[in-house]
Design the sequence.
């Protein structure tokens, strides 16, 4: 029947159309953006330029440091002065303290150090009525420290164990004790022995500051 033929032909036509529709689809191939190769080349060139500048700057700094090291002033090493044998101010069996300190041509500084020690002995409350060997080590250390702070020349690297300051302090105390004995402001050795024997040394006496 004509109506049936028309109805049956419809699915076959759709199938054919469907096959043609699926077969007509084509895969798209990815393409690089226009100008991408040129952009990468520019980045590489910029990176190479920056690296070259950094290398040039590094080389320049190294040259400047080398010139600075060559022109740098190296401080002279401190000369270590060891205490000579004998007693200071003993021309026969001892030594000259000013010469031993390397100040034979600088009397001004030598005298300034002496004046400073006289002041620092009082500041440290050192008892000038007793011998140097019987002094309080802490008070003597205070004298040495105060004098070193005022005169950088008296560094321990130059004078081990502060021997130069100790010699000056010893001389000052000896001279003051002699003067005190002469003026009878300090009891002599015999009087001190009698006082010690009678127990008078138990009484604390004020240091003489005449």
Sequence:
């Amino acid at each position: 029947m004509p109506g049936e033929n028309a109805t049956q032909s419809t699915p076959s036509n759709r199938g054919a159309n469907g096959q043609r529709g699926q077969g007509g689809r084509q895969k798209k191939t990815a393409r690089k953006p226009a100008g991408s190769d040129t952009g990468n080349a520019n980045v590489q060139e910029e990176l190479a330029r920056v690296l070259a500048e950094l290398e040039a700057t590094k080389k320049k700094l190294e040259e400047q440091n080398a010139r600075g090291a060559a022109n740098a002033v190296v401080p002279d090493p401190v000369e270590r002065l060891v205490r000579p044998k004998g007693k200071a101010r003993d021309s026969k069996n001892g030594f000259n303290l000013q010469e031993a300190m390397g100040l034979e041509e600088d009397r001004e500084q030598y005298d300034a150090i002496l004046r400073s020690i006289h002041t620092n002995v009082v500041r440290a409350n050192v008892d000038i009525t007793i011998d140097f060997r019987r002094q309080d080590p802490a008070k003597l250390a205070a004298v040495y420290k105060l004098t070193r702070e005022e005169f950088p020349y008296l560094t321990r690297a130059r004078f081990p164990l502060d021997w130069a300051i100790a010699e000056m302090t010893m001389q000052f105390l000896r001279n003051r004790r002699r003067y005190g004995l002469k003026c009878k402001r300090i009891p002599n050795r015999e009087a001190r022995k009698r006082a010690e024997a009678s127990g008078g040394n138990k009484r604390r006496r004020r240091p003489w500051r005449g």
User: Anything to note?
Assistant: Residues 1-23 have pLDDT under 50 and may be disordered. Residues 61 and 67 are 10 Å apart (CA to CA).
